[in-house]
Amino acid sequence: MEKLGSFLDTTIKKIGITKKIKEEMALYQWEGVVGPQIQKNTRAQRIKGGILFIHVENSHWSQHLSFYKQSLINKLNHKLGSAVVKDIHFKVGPLNLTESVQEKTGEKEDIPDITHTLLEAEEINKIEKTIKDIPAGFFKEKIKNIMMQETRHSISRKEKGWLECRGCGAQFLPRHQEVTCPICRLKK
Question: What are the residues whose beta carbons fall under 8 Å from the beta carbon of 77, sequence distance 6 or more?
Fold first, then answer.
């Protein structure tokens, strides 16, 4: 009988989300790598294309941490077991999630309720096709639920004016008439 860890590794590779999982793990590892003093004054916001975006309390922390950037990258990648983080960008910004959502949307609401967002048959079929090779059971259902939730989030973002980047396909909230995300614009 195949061990659970081996089964999960195989399944994750099969559906092609290994990189995404490693990136998400980098966000969660931030607090463990930096320690309590820095942890109180920073928040890992997101990671895209190997660039970890960190909100910091003030410009003092941004400058201070920039001196330790390479050391932090090395520690994170060591914890993750691979070179997931290539750079870190520090930005003065809100440290709690509610403020961050308000900053982006201009609205004073929590994370949107997507539970009633209906999926088209085509979207459901695409998800079913992606997970068809996973043996029936708990993990298949969990992966299906995660994929359906992400599809609902995508629909919600599109309704709020988010666009799909012509360069990489990631969703982003344009500030002007952009057709590519900030990361793809930086690469040019």
Answer: 83, 84, 85
| pTM of the model as a whole | 0.49
CATH topology of domain 1-105: GMP Synthetase; Chain A, domain 3 (3.30.300)
What is the CA angle 102-108-113, rounded to 5? 90
Contact at 8 Å (CB) between 31 and 43? Answer: no
Residue type, 28: Y
pLDDT digits (tens, 9 = 90+) for 135-167: 888 778 888 888 888 888 888 888 888 888 888
CB 31 within 8 A of CB 69: no
Domain ranges of the chain: 1-105, 112-188
Distances (CA, A) of 83 to 14, 28, 53, 154, 180: 21, 16, 16, 28, 25
